[in-house]
Design goal:
1 helix, five-stranded antiparallel sheet, alpha+beta
């Protein structure tokens, strides 16, 4: 009795031996699906980052000169809401100036106004606020 020898995978097939089927081709769309999935995730992340504050009402207010706003919440994350100047609410301020494209609080005269830096999307700005006397 003889021991069978392992076959050489690189040897040519014996004549009359059945041919092996070629390996199945890899799908070409797999890479496109992965890239598409990543693009979708990025779009969703940006939409949540930009849109969520607007839906919850936490987006900074880009008030105009002459409008009145209330400022509430902690100093590191104040919440600003527009109000009527005659509302008599606490913490009511009139916007005296708006400085676009900066977070420099020094743009406001510190002896006359309170300064509040805000960011709305990619826009950054500083509101110079004058306190409205309570009625």
């Amino acid at each position: 009795m003889t021991t069978p020898q392992p076959s050489d995978p690189f040897a040519a097939p014996a004549p009359g031996a059945p041919e092996q089927a070629p390996a199945p081709e890899k799908k070409k769309g797999g890479l496109l699906k992965k890239i598409g999935g990543i693009v979708v995730l990025v779009i969703v992340a940006v939409a949540v980052k930009v849109g969520l504050p607007h839906l919850t009402g936490d987006a900074p207010v880009h008030a105009k000169v002459g409008e009145c706003v209330t400022v509430t919440g902690p100093d590191d994350a104040p919440k600003v809401d527009t109000q009527g100047c005659d509302s008599g609410k606490a913490a009511l301020f009139k916007v005296a100036a708006v400085h676009e494209g900066t977070f420099d609080l020094g743009k406001c005269d510190q002896n006359k106004y309170s300064a509040l830096a805000q960011q709305l999307g990619s826009d950054k700005f500083v509101l110079c606020l004058e306190e409205v006397a309570a009625k």
